[in-house]
Amino acid sequence: MDLHLKIWRQKDNQSAGKLVAYDLQGLNPHMSFLEMLDTLNEKLIVNGEEPVEFDHDCREGVCGQCGVMINGIAHGPLQHTTTCQLHLRSFKDNDTIVIEPFRSSAFPVKKDLKVDRSAFDRIISLGGFVSINTGQAPDATVIPISHELAEEAFDSAACIGCGACVATCKNGSAALFTSAKITHMALLPQGKEERSQRVLNMVRQMDAESFGHCSNTEACEVECPQGISVLNIARMNFEYNRALIFKKK
């Protein structure tokens, strides 16, 4: 199949960027989207041109590094699918595909399709872990956790931190990402000891990173590759208000 690409090229964060057109012929429909970008880069290198910079790591839909906007949709047209798991068979022969980086003031472009998502790391560093001494790993039956609660916590923990929620939100909100991390810890016994300080610190850092407020459009859940529920945001709001009420002066 043949494809017509329009890819955002930007030298660095201080330079102006623009869409540049490329044509690729004879592509295998079973190629992944990133393999298609690899093919383009091989062609550019052979021609002595600068290859397109883009993030990737595991290429198995786990690490969350590969996210780009594809025809205006975070990760592309398939729901619950990361960019690296998207294949060319999802497009038609001679399609025009516009590829841009995730857009957010909190995700500055480093080069081309590569953005700086270290804002997420700073939010995690303020509470996305258990720091109290929980002792050695107990037997599985020592701390009873219902199946429903375990499943709910696991659903929240499934967030891969790709940033699609931020990129698709018209306000650039990180509420879905932050709330998923807060909910995961708040539901499990090991995380309850620090639940109040965790939510206060993580929400404060989220605001400091210049993410916008939740738009309530639920677009984040629609384009999240893991289908993280917006109910996590409701849980975060509950945990935040609870922490303020019981905050020690």
In short:
With 249 residues, the protein is an alpha+beta fold.
Structural account:
The chain is an alpha+beta fold. The protein has two domains: 3-103, Roll (Ubiquitin-like (UB roll)), CATH 3.10.20.30; 116-133 and 141-246, Orthogonal Bundle (Fumarate Reductase Iron-sulfur Protein, Chain B, domain 2), CATH 1.10.1060. 35% of the residues lie in helices and 12% in strands. The chain contains nine helices and seven strands; from the N terminus they run E-E-H-E-E-E-E-E-H-H-H-H-H-H-H-H. The chain has helices at residues 33-46, 118-124, 147-157, 164-168, 175-187, 189-192, 195-208, 219-223, 231-245; strands at residues 3-9, 18-24, 69-70, 73-74, 95-100, 109-111, 114-115. The strands form two sheets. The protein has a five-stranded mixed β-sheet. A two-stranded antiparallel sheet has the order 6-7. A hairpin with a 2-residue loop joins strand 6 (109-111) and strand 7. Helix 2 (118-124) runs antiparallel to helix 7 (195-208). The radius of gyration is 20 Å and the shape is elongated. The termini are far apart. The mean pLDDT is 94. InterPro entries: 2Fe-2S_ferredoxin-like_sf, 2Fe2S_fd_BS, 4Fe4S_Fe-S-bd, Beta-grasp_dom_sf, Helical_ferredxn, SDH/FRD_Iron-Sulfur, Succ_DH/fum_Rdtase_N. This is Succinate dehydrogenase/fumarate reductase iron-sulfur subunit. Residues 150-179 form the 4Fe-4S ferredoxin-type domain. Belongs to the succinate dehydrogenase/fumarate reductase iron-sulfur protein family. One of its GO terms (biological process) is respiratory electron transport chain.
